[in-house]
What we know:
single chain, alpha+beta, Four Helix Bundle (Hemerythrin (Met), subunit A), four-stranded antiparallel β-sheet, disordered C terminus
Amino acid sequence: xxxxxxxxxxxSALIIAGLQAVLPLWGARHNNRPLMDFAGRAAGLQALVLxxxxxxxxxxxxxSDFSVKLAADHSxxxxxxxxxxxxxxxxxxxxxxxxxxxxxxxxxxAARFSGALPRTLKARTLxxxxxxxxxxxxxxxxxxxxxxxxxxxxxxxxxxxxxxQDPGLAFHPPFLYLGYVGFSLAFSLACGALIExxxxxxxxxxxxxxxxxxxxxxxxxxxxxxLWAYYELGWGGWWMWxxxxxxxxxxxxxxxxxLHSVLILGTRGQFANWTVLLAILTxxxxxxxxxxxxxxxxxxxxxxxxDPARGVFILGxxxxxxxxxxxxxxxxxxxxxxxxxxxxxxxxMLSTFILSAxxxxxxxxxxxxxxxxxxxxxxxxxxATATVFxxxxxxxxxxAISPNKITVGAPYFNKTFAPIMMLLILVMGIAPLLRWVxxxxxxxxxxxxxxxxxxILGGIIFTLTGAPIGSAIGMALAIYITAGVLLxxxxxxxxxxxxxxxxxASFYGFILGHMGMAVITLAIAVMSFxxxxxxxxxxxxxxxxxxxxxxxxxxVSNGKRENFNYLAGQFEVTKNxxxxxTLTSEQRYYPIxxxxxxxxxxxxxxxxxxxxxxxxxxxxxxxxVRVYHQPMVIWIWIGGLMMALAGxxxxxxxxxxxQTAKDDVDA
Length: 667
């Protein structure tokens, strides 16, 4: 009865979500308080029902109930408990159920913690959230039912994909979904505000909190995914511009722009239309990521290779959700009328769109100001997002209109994305230091001098030590960001540590977030230009050199653990002929799936990381071995986690008001 009860709970959740989507909207339209208050109760009930359904599916995996088809296809009685549980979302159907559970939880928490919102806006926001749930629960019920029965049930399951049998599966997807789905609430708040017809500072502060939460979770998810791919796939890289990596990166870029835009709206009451548009686009990019992973249109080591018909369903949802929201935005923001007037007057649609989206007359906008710096930040993030989007989907466009197939890889992104990010870093160092409303060229010249001189000096010193020019540029950019952060702290403190200690949590979040970017910038530059690798075939007792390191294969052993057989190679690593560490790399054979995986051996260190991977071979011919030396690679993930922590710190509510913090910035 477990599967049947889970199916009933899903149907119940669909009904509740439908009522949540309709009744509160009607209540807000007619100022009916009971119907508006129903939104919060429905959101809480929907979350409880979906949690119950997810718990029942998890029970099927844990108890190895192979009469449930999903458990039979993706679990096995010999799997460790951790992988039985994480295997629940290590597939298409289970991951979609996790998606709707998280979406419902966001709605329930919004209902619980948004008491200060106007009742009508709260009702409309939760109604939109319910409408989103209707779409995705329908998708699960009609195309991807996780509770389908299998008769007769097999004696044992097919097991989980060996690449997913890793602790990374327990953490990476949930955090990624907490980010992806978290932007749904920003989307709902934006649509609710458009229907309400009122977008102000109070709305911006609520939006900022939820965007910070989703952005922080997404940052953790991407960081953990990068680390997981690094050690699990054994290809020696932290990012490979894989299509599925890209579609998680795009909403992160758009979400970063949204964070900066909502700061302007909450502080100065400007850029309301632009902020709403970014909220819509960020969640739309999250939906596109969901479509790519489940449609089968792109080949990726991360994708669920499923029936493309399911992708058509999701594509329809994207068109309805994003298209409907954009139409609502264009009507409410007056863009349709603005486009018509611009056409009659001979103006360009682009200029009309920008001025209307920023809801600010050109004569009132001063480019040399904090607003101007943050706007340039938004533009660069938008260009970066478009660049990644084009590189990811351009091969599909070509394939759709011609028989030719092309591949867009790292060279494209290195030549296009890297320069944009360098420009963005230059803006990061200066924009926070500018004054609101208007600044002057003399102050700009002084600020540029303060932040660039240490950067140039640091880059020169790094070059003189023998570092490659690319690493020196990375060092200079990292110092540049750091100098800007320190100058911001000095201006806020006015030389008083006690005053600095009284700053709001959001300021400390700003410091930690920008320092995280500095750490990532330096680590990527050093790792990219100073890492080394070597590959060769060696026997036991022989060595593979990678100056100044030497990897000696000291022994090969085999055995069996839980649900796989292994062949392990032990490596003694020396540096300049001095013993450094011992590494163990394994080839694992999973008889249930008939698959072989490689588990590399690592020594993570603050400065130099080394690892070795044992591949094909035998005792007579020797084994193919790949060895790597990658300096500072660990700081890429540390920097990412610093940025995520910065987001959580910024969520801490201080006793000081928003207005007080703004006055300090102006001062």
